């Protein structure tokens, strides 16, 4: 089991992860690492696609390498270099990784955007990076064409092809020179941008986050060639990219699926392919381990489950551990900008995200800018000890997020305990105020989720006539259970006595909470839903 330590400098009020020992040279391109891994194991199965278009279609490393080389050669023939960008609008299609790897081979940055984004968001994001070439599902062709009409890039379809429109197969035909192909070297050093993804956009328009070569080569070697990995995260998400790279470089097999996630779907994939490790969002964790399908028999092949992206109640983790006693559960805390910051193995305490990973440093900062010590809540600021090119085309937001000393202000609130464990309690921008008293939604969510009838909860601030942000709760009940608004309100009242943490705006029962395509809870959408359908104010 992986054991990492965090140290604390009391004089500087500064927490450090262990010194980082590079497994791979940051000056070696991630494209070279992928290229060599595929070349050395040509008969290994690197991905099996379980999708609506390609049912259980296996792709050997040798086949994948050939496809990526041919596509990279097309990029070179088209004059694409490190100064250009290739767009990808897709979600777990079998060709997603072929395009991404070809970009890495050519050292041409890819910009991955979820097709589930609103059309105006896709247009705004691509207007920032202005890709010369974009790959997409044929069903999204007209949308992409309209979004990019100002510069008219070449659009190539991945699936659902359209007559007279270029398709990826046009560039996958054998060439006479592919045996002599070699990935391009870095031109700008380890900090050269190799990829661009988007922030979650939970509170506004997503930003385009640059990913350097140095960040992408930070992949572990704990995965073996016999591992079978599944994640529903696509390559427009940092976790999706890291799963692809970790599996490929270490010779593991990755299961790809573009079908809608559900507990039933996960169980089917795990049983069919004997999956040994999977990565889940916190919403997916809730779906799976609140389901009767989550049994030891169904999921016994799983040796490790990593999860992150939001708050997972400790009671849910404990329930999962009872089902899978021999499975390691790993909570991951990180951001697109900083990569992984902390990990916790088998956490059984709410909000615990564990020890800092090697190479990361953290301070806890008050609203006045003072450095705080253990057990004091403030903003979590992070230093990665790596250069960062910032948000593409947005110098102002870059400077606001990362200061001149290299500290990232990501807006999370948290603290360290006396054993140097990090806890994340909420987002700074989600903090609420009622009659002059500040509180966070998670203060109340942790109490509501104690009720056995509750599957998921989101607390929002509803402004009253005095502009107080009264707490209102959107609650998803467990199937076939009975729970009333008054039961929820009274449970909170029994557990916390202060007035500002009571459910003054009441409770709204919903079938599901609003999440984006990558499993992030959309609090603004939840608040809008509460306003639209709010129940009469609860009374105690």
Automatic annotation (TrEMBL):
<dbReference type="InterPro" id="IPR025110">
    <property type="entry name" value="AMP-bd_C"/>
</dbReference>
<dbReference type="InterPro" id="IPR042099">
    <property type="entry name" value="ANL_N_sf"/>
</dbReference>
<dbReference type="Pfam" id="PF00501">
    <property type="entry name" value="AMP-binding"/>
</dbReference>
<protein>
    <recommendedName>
        <fullName>Luciferin 4-monooxygenase</fullName>
    </recommendedName>
</protein>
<feature type="domain" description="AMP-dependent synthetase/ligase">
    <location>
        <begin position="62"/>
        <end position="392"/>
    </location>
</feature>
<dbReference type="GO" id="GO:0005777">
    <property type="term" value="C:peroxisome"/>
</dbReference>
<dbReference type="Pfam" id="PF13193">
    <property type="entry name" value="AMP-binding_C"/>
</dbReference>
<keyword id="KW-0576">Peroxisome</keyword>
<dbReference type="InterPro" id="IPR000873">
    <property type="entry name" value="AMP-dep_synth/lig_dom"/>
</dbReference>
<dbReference type="GO" id="GO:0046949">
    <property type="term" value="P:fatty-acyl-CoA biosynthetic process"/>
</dbReference>
<feature type="domain" description="AMP-binding enzyme C-terminal">
    <location>
        <begin position="444"/>
        <end position="520"/>
    </location>
</feature>
<dbReference type="InterPro" id="IPR020845">
    <property type="entry name" value="AMP-binding_CS"/>
</dbReference>
<dbReference type="GO" id="GO:0004467">
    <property type="term" value="F:long-chain fatty acid-CoA ligase activity"/>
</dbReference>
<dbReference type="InterPro" id="IPR045851">
    <property type="entry name" value="AMP-bd_C_sf"/>
</dbReference>
